[in-house]
Amino acid sequence: MNARPMYLLSVMISAALACTACGKSQGGAQAEPSPAPQDHSFSTPLGQRAGTGDSPEVLSTPNPYEGSKEAAREGQQIYLAMNCTTCHAYDGSGNQGPPLNDTRWRYGGLPIQVFNSIHDGRPQGMPSWKDKLTDDQIWKLVTYVESFGGTFPASDWQHAPQGDVENENEAPEAQGQFMTPVPGTVPPPAPATKPPR
Amino acid sequence: MPPISPSHARDRIVVSLFPFFAVLITGLAQAAPTPSPAGASFPTPAPAPTSASIPHKSVTGATLNFAPNEPNGQWQSEAHDWANTRYSDLNQVNESNVAHLKIAWTFSNNTKYGQEAAPLVVDGTMYIVTPFPDDLYALDLTKPGNPIKWKFEANPSPMGIGKACCDVVVRGLAYADGLVIYNLLDDHTVAVSAKTGKQVWRTKMGNVQSGETMTMSPFVVKDKVYAGDSGGEMGVRGWLAALDVKTGKELWRAYATGSDKDVKLGPDFHPFYKWMQGKDLGVTSWPRDMWKHGAGASWGWVSYDPETNLIFYGTSNPGPRVPAERPGDNLWTSTIFARDADTGEAKWAYQFTPHDQWDYDGVNENLLMDLPMDGKVRKVLVHLDRNAFAYTMDRTTGEVLSAQPFAYQNWSSGIDLKTGRPVVIPKMQPKPNIALKVCPPDIGGKDWQPAAVSPRTGLVYADHFNLCMQVTDKVVGYIPSTPYDGMDMGRYPAPGGNLGAFMAWNPVTGKKVWEIPEKYMTMSGVLATAGDVVFYGTADGWFRAVDAWSGKVLWSQKLGSGIIGQPMTYLGPDGRQYIAITAGVGGASKVRIDTNLMDKVGFPAGGDTTYVFSVDGISANSSGPGMIETPGQGIKSIPGPLPPSSPPPPDYDKHKATAPPPGTRRQP
Predict the structure, then answer these.
(1) pTM score, two decimals?
(2) B544-573 core/surface letters (b: 16 or more CB in 10 A; e: else)
(3) ipTM for this model
């Protein structure tokens, strides 16, 4: 059983309702403690290959804000307010978490896969944000991540989901340091026909 | 006191051999056809050097207590003893033969992260702990090839990989009562039977999902093991806990922030300085409720003084790393505590960096010694803080006797010994959204990498950094299980251009005796020995032996990765002295450092090999002439042309005189 189509439907509905004001707080400097938003990430098996089990229809889900500079700007505000910077760095080059500006994606670099990583969390420390952010906010965050230049377009669903790096059994996060491009040399967005790595 | 200028710093350098030059000298010495001067004398320990040029009077007159006095040649805890001396009384390896150190054997643990722990050696077994996934190996040193006796797989949750700030390291093991004890990245302390490799107990100490991890080496005194948490940038509330060695049951826990009850400040608590006296300062020195996630994690080292029954340890930076968000002293972060080892009640405390604005954790090691100062012997501890000042403190009262900078810094004009407070230079205080250049950087003038002290020279040996940072504070909010940080920061070299240095420090005068600048970062532990040679390593993979008196580099060996581990020494079952170090660059030395500098270190992140050295690389069970027999059926005769045989080298028979003790060598 794959529950994802149903869930995807809700994503698409919310995307259709996009740009209505976000109901949830983005967290001020003195935000009150609230329940930790990470419980769901354990449901994702470690080492799950990106895109496994997903149909083309799911994988090719476009980002409703694709290319929107306004959405990327709002996404940047969320990126800063949700403390993404300590793990992924202010420029997306990664730190204790993986870089977001290279083309290496453990759980896939398609828009819907980046969305899912934020929404559900991942087992190696990435919290789930589904209780903290609306789907609309997450898509804006995806738009900002896309602006780093390492993601794949939805049209590239056949090639983009590369999953684990070949022959690598351990977390790429801590090894990502040398994959980090020198600032200013961020690779251009991947072409639609990029071959699998 | 003015800030230390680079020319000032250079004035103190009596000996400054550039590593390249030293390596050249060593290389020439090895190329010369002179026979090994001491090689023939093994296994009889060679006499200590007696060169007339060496002053034999201790420079400071420091005396050390080596309790619990481990049996000769063993290494049962990371610091070797309760006083954290990291000094071994072995002297087979000394000035006369250290240049002949060669690799005797190696062991790869097949992990890819930074290697910060020293191996332990107890009863003919070597214990090696790996970074995540926190595996533990026992190697049998009594058998040919040092085979694996057992392997314990701790299998911790991978959640900690993304929560740990500075690589998924573990800083070591503790051995007690037949148990090997260490901390797992996912907030568990585990005890493994040294005999069987089976888990005896595992205690959950925290919740890794919250951002809390554990990386420190536990510390054992008698029937208790002490362990603390990591996560100064993750909005944790720091603590140190005592567990029962036999059962793993938690006996007490002392927090770094909060009420006096939580911090365990009772009627016996008498801080030396007035500004640390008062009720519930762990609450009132913070804006409302911010102490609840104000960090003060204890991820460094613990020392123990059996005379006073006190343990000493430090706490991390306050959170978030944006000082504008937390006006106040933020007690008890960046602080050293002296606590009763049995009850955990504090006797005194001292905050090195009040209202820490630069991430100057106070977790570095405390070396306990008795020092003649101003005509009387003081019971002191010596602490080289991240804030770049070296403190010599009365360990019975918490009074600061001396505090002098040991690394380049420009945040303070000195420590006021009357008040005990650092004098902060106003323009060096970061303000939100304004870029500021300040030295040292977040990882300090020296990080967790522990120093050593020799009772022969009376000097403290440490490697430190020569770094600055450009920092821009960005206001952050607290969101559970996410980072609580706000420091946008990049490091760059301090004046001089070298990133690291190794020094001998006089804890009485507060001055360097000599210093060896290193081109790249130095973040390894230090080993001091009775052979008057001290050992350290560099991030670009050089493992060095240095004359403890003069600072002359006597030997260097390039290893397979950068070194951020801790050297140790032991006496093998064959009676030989071995030196061991695990190479594998990572940790904070790889995190957020300037990209260009990182690339020049010359290694990919991670590494996994423990190197074991002996004079001429000889070992009764793993190298040398005793090891020419294969475990198979001997030589098989295969028909056909034979390759031309070459005569044995002229010094082939030399090693016969150095044969291991009878019974350990197999006859061909």
Answers:
(1) 0.83
(2) bbbbbbbbbbbbbbebebbbbbbbbbbbbb
(3) 0.81
